Amino acid sequence: MKQKSARVYGIFQTIAPRYDRANARISLGLERGWKKLLVRRMADQTGRGQRVLDICCGTGDIAVLLAEKRPDLHVTGLDFSPAMLEIAREKGSGLPHLDWVQGDAMRLPFRDGTFAAVCISFGLRNTADYARVLAEMKRVVQPGGKVFCLDSFVPDDPLILPFYRLYFRHLMPVLGGGRRFRQAYTWLTRSTELFPRRRELMGTFARTGLRAVQSRSRMFGACVLIEGTRR
User: Fold this and answer.
1) At the topology level of CATH, where does 27-152+196-230 sit?
2) DSSP for 39-91?
3) Overall average pLDDT of the 22-43 stretch
C-alpha cells in the first residue's frame, strides 16, 4: 500500500507541468466533456450555499468548473501532490469560495458530514485502497448527500476490448509522456487495467453503504461516472 502511494506521488510530482496537455492528447480531446458531465450532475443535485469536496483534485479542473458554474457553493479541492495543487491554485485564483487542501484521500482531514457532495475524478484507480477511499468519502458527506466517481475503466464489450488495449498499452504512453515520460504513463495505464470493472466498483459503492447506485458510460465504457447516495 505504501509502495503504491509513494510511486504515484513521485509520478504526479514529476508530470504535473505537462499533465493537462497530456490528458487532452490521450483522451483525444474528450476529457473536458467527461468532466463537464460530472460537474453538471454535482451542480444539479446540490442545494444553494452548500459545501462540496473534490478529492484527488489534481490540477483543479473539476473544482474550478464547479466554482464557475455554481459560485454560491463552497468548493474544496484536495490532493496529496504540492506540484499539482500549485497549478490548481493558479487556475482558481480570483474565484470566490474556492480553497485547496493538501491531504490524503484515505484519511480525509474533515469531520463527519461536512459536505453535501463529494467527488473523485480519474484518481480512485491511483489510490492504494479503493474501498477505504470510498468509505472516507461516505464519512464526510451528509446523510442524503451524493458521492461521485469518474474514472477510466476497461470496457466490458469484447468487441471494443482489442482496440482499447492496442491504444492504451501502445499508443497512449507515447502520446501522454513522449520519450522522456513514457514509463510514467505506461504505469498509469497499468493502474487502469488493474482497476475493478464498472459493476464491481458499483458493488463496492453498495457495500460501503451507498444506495441508489447508478452509472453513466462514455466512449464505449472506457470512461464511467458512478454515483451513490449516503443513507
Assistant:
1) Rossmann fold (3.40.50)
2) HHHHHHTS-TT-EEEEES-TTSHHHHHHHHH-TTSEEEEEES-HHHHHHHHHH
3) 84
